[in-house]
Amino acid sequence: MNTKAGTYIQAIRGPVLLVTIGVLFAIHQAGIISFSRTWPLLIIVIGVMKLLERSMGGQPLPAQPAGPYSSQTGAHEQYTGRTEPRYSGTNVPPSGSGGTNA
User: Fold this and answer.
1) How many domains does the chain have?
2) What angle do CA 22, 24, 27 make, to 5 degrees?
3) pTM greater than 0.85
4) Counting Cβ atoms within 10 Å, is residue 36 exposed (0-12), middle (13-18) or buried (19+)?
């Protein structure tokens, strides 16, 4: 299966639904058919999009990480290139000579 096509279909699902809603409201505003009779078309469009997505092998989009500082290790190394621990609160670096705090 082509997962790239499935991901593409998943990406266009929102815009397709917005266009469908816009067309249905335009038909309602023109007085051709009321929205109360055409809203089931939204369910049909959602179903067709899901079927296309699954038939193309689309997988759910991966969850995004919380941010660059989501863990205590790794993020510091990523941005500074240094591997020593970060200092905060009671964990302060030794100062001056002898490693004692004055």
Assistant:
1) 1
2) 110
3) no
4) exposed
